């Protein structure tokens, strides 16, 4: 009984459910924007990388390496508390989107790029020899293969980074963790944190399952 | 000009003053300090099948790959139907490549697309055919190589020989003026070689102009109008299959042929 009272207190649940639901909505839309923006930016950078011009490659590689090396929390704090000193004031959600989207883009660029380099030279030659342009060969032949190779690591990375929306709790974004941990302080019950854990599961577990199906569907024999 | 047609080669295709489909003039290719091709001259007449033989590293494949500029020639010129391939850039080069079909040793079919989509892709994207038109043409070409029933398969489901025939169909669907074959059967299990050679033989009989780099000497004897022997980046000897295999003039060719099939030549 003590276990249930601690983690599944019905009265506490009922009291904080509305707050938590709106927090779930916040986490969801932040995640969607971060994933779409991060993957799109990463894909674009990988395409530019494939042009093989040093003046593009150099900044792209620098961005990808720095983005992967820095702990996102550090960058979030710098953006939120440091930039106002320069007169740049960004809202909490905006900082979260910029930083986590950027970090995902850095990883995605690496993953797409690794996929592109794994596509054999012969595929490029077959495309070019049949009169396709560089861009056509990239988009019709190389990228589809690179993307399929990248799906498992991309899903993992996208999940890991969207879960970091919880870092928004340190800069006042009313996402799941912020709302539930303040509810925990007010109520003195751990139940809101249980609710947060369940909410995260409800959001991310289907994505994990979906990615498995996706992988299976896109597997092809070579 | 070492590769100029000899009288007997001309007899095989009687036209004397016909303009060559493919013309290679003084082609040179260096990789860094290493010269891999030295003053190559070759003229391929309409409907002719020129067979290129030589030890590995002799520059055969590089010569072939210079013809559609997968390798950039260091100097010299290449003409297709009188047009300079070597002076094309950007879109003009892409357009030129449409007229030069190429078949690779490793097939290089697109694994993420069906067989039909493999044959349609460049037709739609590069040749700007409508989809129905491209599909009809693709089906026709697959029929031609005996693989119409595999249209909806993916390349991974096909044997090597079948993949190579699809690759041939993919190139043919663009109505090229010349077909280049870069060791088309070298990656195949022996029992699958015949199916690919059969398709090539039929192409030849239909009048396709072809340049074939290969080690299939039997096929060369049977189907080639002219055999070119390369060694060390130069054309050492060229002539009819009978001349090359029956009466090799140079020591290098004799050595090559005896290494290849002891007791045959």
From TrEMBL, chain A:
The keyword Transport applies. It is a multi-pass membrane protein. It comes from the Bacteria. One of its GO terms (molecular function) is transmembrane transporter activity. Pfam families: BPD_transp_1 (PF00528). Residues 24-214 form the ABC transmembrane type-1 domain. It is found in: Cell inner membrane; Cell membrane. InterPro entries: AA_ABC_transptr_permease_3TM (IPR010065), ArtM/GltK/GlnP/TcyL/YhdX-like (IPR043429), MetI-like (IPR000515), MetI-like_sf (IPR035906). Keywords: Amino-acid transport, Cell membrane, Membrane, Transmembrane, Transmembrane helix, Transport. GO terms for biological process: amino acid transport. GO terms for cellular component: ATP-binding cassette (ABC) transporter complex. Belongs to the binding-protein-dependent transport system permease family. HisMQ subfamily. This is ABC transporter permease subunit. It comes from Rhodalgimonas zhirmunskyi.
